[in-house]
């Protein structure tokens, strides 16, 4: 399936996987609407998109912001085809060290944000009888580890959300894909992008190319789950 003139929304697209995906999909002909809270970085991605990327600053935990992002995409391009829920971050502490604010704020971004952007997009996708919702989760939606209770809980929640959503929207011709990645060399990790310890991890471009593959399958094909790891990572 060509992405020419397809409309894509990507959250958390000011840097990292979201940025790389936005630029790659734009290069393949998609009209890309990106959102994130960092206005300066978001506008730079828009500039790098050479007219194929529209930046709409917003907070995924705000219903009004996500409705505005979706409406902007519809007003600008007349349709919506693909929604990539990419916004998210991690807090890694033992349970008794996690504050209530940390719990609420992470869940608001990783879980509520996925719900709000998807909810805002569904009326348009249902009305046209097609569409694709992608959720960038993590392989820790399938496993746990010490110090990861908050982050893994958010990813398990995304996994459950996708499972129910998939059953609800398939009759409307809407695809749902969960992306479960292992270690990615990005700003997400404590030592930062490009550290010597992460040189053999997945790259942001690897993730972007995976996203391109997922959303460019023929109309009759859906990839329900996409698991990807660097070779050096045990799973």
From TrEMBL:
Enzyme Commission number(s): 1.-.-.-
One MF term in the entry's GO annotations: oxidoreductase activity
Protein name: SDR family oxidoreductase
Family affiliation: Belongs to the short-chain dehydrogenases/reductases (SDR) family.
Entries under Pfam families matching the protein: adh_short
UniProt cross-references to Gene3D superfamilies, sorted A to Z: NAD(P)-binding Rossmann-like Domain
Entry keywords, A to Z: NADP, Oxidoreductase
InterPro entries: KR_dom (IPR057326), NAD(P)-bd_dom_sf (IPR036291), SDR_fam (IPR002347)
Ketoreductase domain residues: 6-180
């Amino acid at each position: 399936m060509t992405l020419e003139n397809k409309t894509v929304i990507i959250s958390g697209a000011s840097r990292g996987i979201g940025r790389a995906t936005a630029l790659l999909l734009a290069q393949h002909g998609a009209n890309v609407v990106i959102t994130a809270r960092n206005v300066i970085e978001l506008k730079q991605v828009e500039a790098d998109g050479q007219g194929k990327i529209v930046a709409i600053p917003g907070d995924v935990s705000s219903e009004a912001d996500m409705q505005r992002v979706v409406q902007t995409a519809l007003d600008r391009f007349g349709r919506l085809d693909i929604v990539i829920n990419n916004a998210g971050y991690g807090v890694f502490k033992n349970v008794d060290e996690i504050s209530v604010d940390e719990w609420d704020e992470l869940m608001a971004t990783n879980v509520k944000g996925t719900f709000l952007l998807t909810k805002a997009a569904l009326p348009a996708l249902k009305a046209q009888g097609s569409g694709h919702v992608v959720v960038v989760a993590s392989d820790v939606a399938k496993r746990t580890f010490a110090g990861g209770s908050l982050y893994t809980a958010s990813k398990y929640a995304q996994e459950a959300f996708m499972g129910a959503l998939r059953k609800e929207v398939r009759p409307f011709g809407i695809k749902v894909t969960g992306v479960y990645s292992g270690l990615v060399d990005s700003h997400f990790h404590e030592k930062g992008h490009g550290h010597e310890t992460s040189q053999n991890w997945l790259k942001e471009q690897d993730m972007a190319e995976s996203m391109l593959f997922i959303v460019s399958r023929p109309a009759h094909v859906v990839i329900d789950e996409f698991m990807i790891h660097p070779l050096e990572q045990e799973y």
